[in-house]
């Protein structure tokens, strides 16, 4: 999943990075095929080259040796809203048929079964990044037909990367379509984890296994 | 001892003077420079019915909720950053363990609310929230039309806390405070407030501040009290001073899941100590584990 | 020689590539860090029909107006700061010596226009202009109603220059630029623009920038060209580098009053030189007269 | 005039300072009766103690040794608009009966006889400082019945200080009234320089001559 996410990034992209898998994927891309990837963390660090896996979004390790630290108002206004971000990553507790994402509540808003953390910066990333990738593990509870709460709208999500497959959003129908499978995963196995009548692209690709240099670089990042 | 000099007060006196029951309180710091020292003193003094404003409520909010200080939370992301959930917060919402009103935005929405308060404007416009459920959940998210283009934008109201508490790396005795590393919304939250408490790792001579005036983020003229509290942001980070006590952040998942363990924690480390120095005495070896490496930068020339 | 490395270009190439006839051009710097070097190159290259945006048009605007580059001025205070009038500007307005459209605000209005452009917003709200004649003179000053309080506020439209030119104390070859001292609206003017030229006293290694990232005001990712031009803000100031050449500011009152003297000045010091180094060769003794004293501050610790 | 302006300032005031006479008056007050006066210059320097008479508003001499430098957007939003400025000084090319101030044009806006510099920060100082003092030399052309252009409205001006006399604005009528005369100046001499039927306060005071320590301090400032 990390390797697929990393491969989505092009050299020179300006990418808005969150903690966890996106941070790992971005640093993996930077260590391999995209040395000129510009990492911007929500906490305001620009051109960041962390020397450890950051503990949280405000980790001082993101600051030490970065090119610039902007106050948060500038992150949202001057970088995101002004249109300087090429790629944004979103996590998700739920993603539905139309790629709507929920990170707010499971159940009703007033009396939720599970209270999730909320939007954080997701709402503005979804509104302003030019290309939006969602990343989450494939799981029936995470892929309902309709999310309980639209934290970020599906309209601008272009691709959803999971640990089993990749979905692409079809602009015409607005639906997520299965576009690629990890080696050994079947269409039926994916359908069993998705809460709607999943359609596929005409040709469903197989995700190539990560090249050895990517795996070496990933191991190195994880041992930082 | 510099307490009493200028605006320098003990945390006990600063909280007693400036944080009152029912107040709207901002304790900011974007996972960095979080004034746990102030939050603990607020818990010790038994404040009630506070509205806490914080982008990322974090452990500091979970502790204040568990201690019964908070009746309303204004926020944009409620979690244990990089380590789990805030279970006292979740129990309040999911099981209605105690009454807790919420007023929820995205980060940009919260930043915009502080920015409006700081700027003396009643609202702040932003491009956001189209097709999301947030405006339905929160009537405080409205819209405004651009008088030039006719575009419809989202609008959020100014947030003006009664008191904002910010942790800074250093301050002089008048509250001229310098911050570096992640800046978060420390400046906006301070300017938005009626009263400001600056908590600093170091209290320095005014000449240190004057030597590098572009580093100053909060001017003393808006500050009401200055508290000297080394390691006052522990277990969070302070750039150039100490790293996060990540063991504690990870441990919080289990502590906060269990109401009894949480109470025991508060009894021992918050209510059971008189002040920050007693808290620190209960955490031996912090310096060895967490003290920052020296990565001092060069200065710049302010001559003319 | 670092020209060609990264985004580093000669002033001639940067202006040729990024400043076109008819462009909206911002040359900012609030009496400090004004890129006279860029303005002179624009005059040399004979640009026409430019809209110049500047809070304080200053000598730099007077020279560009006299040289026939400017057809419209967007501004808030047009004078020779501390020293007199801009007579080429006044002749254009008072005697219609040449066509010059004006679009006039107060400083706050201009700052707000740049802020809106930088933020990707179509307008900026401000409390201002009640009972003044400015909105009558300028239909670009409108009003907007707060959706929460019903207050009526002034509103100004976003200003998005085609190109902004900022002078900085130092930059790396990618345009990550650090500025200290008076900041003016350098950041907002740069982010508001489609293209950005950074002109720097020093081109430094990226490691210098990375050693003190809170000092960075403009990130390279919005910068199109970097020009190395020591003394490039002369006769204005650059904190830590040189003082204002006040003799020249005072002399400008007489030079600009007299059309012939002004033409002679442009012929000798602007059109009559090929580049900034020739200009500087005509100003011997600058270092002795104007070089800044050393008032280098201490650094701060970025360790964790 | 400088000494009178200086005497208007109270110790501890936060004052918004412009170049020229206001800067001199503020530094004079700071050097004498108001050591805790907080000087904020429009260029963003806060708590400023200039070591020379500044050449312009962006003079680096204002920065060296000051407490803070704020970007201009913060000067206008966080300091002025937020209400942190106690006293603002305004200069004036024209002031009229109702204390309206003109620094924009003499004559019509489209085809002015004299094009003046314009508002600069005057409009926002007049809108937001708690107490507003205008300072200009007394001269018939400068005191017409009605200004040619209202750069800043008279409504919030409390006092006008000239080299011959002081005017106070009467809140009820909105008119400038003569409140004090410099020694040796008569009411008629002032009336001759004012373009309307000037009224006076019931008691017109005489401005006390500057105390010797103020004059010594002023001389010292001028020789910096």
Give a written overview of the molecule:
Chain A is α/β, with parallel strands linked by helices and 224 residues long. In chain A, 22% of the residues lie in helices and 25% in strands. In chain A, the strands form four sheets. Chain A has an eight-stranded mixed β-sheet, sandwiched between helices. Chain A has a two-stranded antiparallel sheet with strand order 3-4. In chain A, helix 2 packs across helix 6. In chain B, strand 9 and strand 10 form a beta hairpin. In chain B, helix 1 crosses helix 2 and helix 2 runs parallel beside helix 3. Chain B starts with 7 loop residues before the first strand and ends in a 14-residue tail after the last helix. The mean pLDDT of chain B is 97. Chains in contact: A-B, A-C, B-C, B-D, C-D. The interface between A and B is large, with 48 and 57 residues.
Shape of chain A: globular
Q: Which H/E pattern describes the elements of chain A? A: HEHEEEHEEEEEHEEEEHEH
Let me know the number of strands of chain A: 14
Helix content of chain A: 10-25%
Strand order of the largest sheet of chain A: 2-1-5-10-11-12-13-14
**What characterizes the major β-sheet of chain A?**
8 strands, mixed
Question: Structural class given helices, strands, pairing of chain B?
Answer: alpha/beta
Q: Per the principal axes of the C-alpha atoms, what is the gross shape of chain B?
A: globular
User: Total number of helical segments of chain B?
Assistant: 12
Percentage of residues assigned to helices of chain B: 25-40%
Number of alpha- plus pi-helical segments of chain A: 6
Average pLDDT rating of chain B: 97
Largest interface: pair, residues per side:
A-B, 48 and 57 residues
DSSP strand content of chain A = 25-35%
State the oligomer: heterotetramer
Order of helices and strands of chain B: EHEHEHEHEHEHEEEEHEHEEHHHH
Radius of gyration of chain B: 19 Å
Provide the structure class of chain A.
Answer: alpha/beta
